Amino acid sequence: MEKAVMFCGCFAASGTGCLESVQGTMKSQDYQEILERNVLPSVRKIGLSCSTLSASGATQPIPFLTLEQKAAFVFVLLLFIFLGLLIVRCFRILLDPYSSMPSSTWTDYMEKDTFDYRIA
Q1: What DSSP line would sit under the chain, residue for residue?
Q2: pTM over 0.85
């Protein structure tokens, strides 16, 4: 019967951390002991910052936006606001199309049966 060997370790874009071989079935306590022995040495070896580690040893992403991303976000937000205003305006016109038209027309200015002829 062949025995399988399992390795527990970590890796990042900057390299691999410490590896540890595990014999048999790994239980929760075994996993916690491996983390206690290997997290800080692996962090130093890979070159990660200790401030980005959570309690479980996993790295947490640091949320930040560059200036260009912030400007693009604000621009897109303004476009959505403008689009919302246009949609509201279009629905108002669709619901009551005659309210946006002027109430007077050219016939209001002419008296009945009178014409204004001019000789040039």
Answers
A1: -----EEE--EETTEE---EEE-SPPPHHHHHHHHHHHHHHHHHHHT--GGGB-TTS-B-------HHHHHHHHHHHHHHHHHHHHHHHHHHHHH-TTTTS-S--GGGGS-TT-------
A2: no
Contact 45, 17 (CB under 8 A): yes
Q: What is the pLDDT of residues 62-88, one digit of tens each?
A: 567 788 888 999 999 999 999 999 999
d(CA 34, CA 16): 16
The residue to which tokens 């992403």 are assigned: 61
Distance CA 69, CA 16 (A): 31
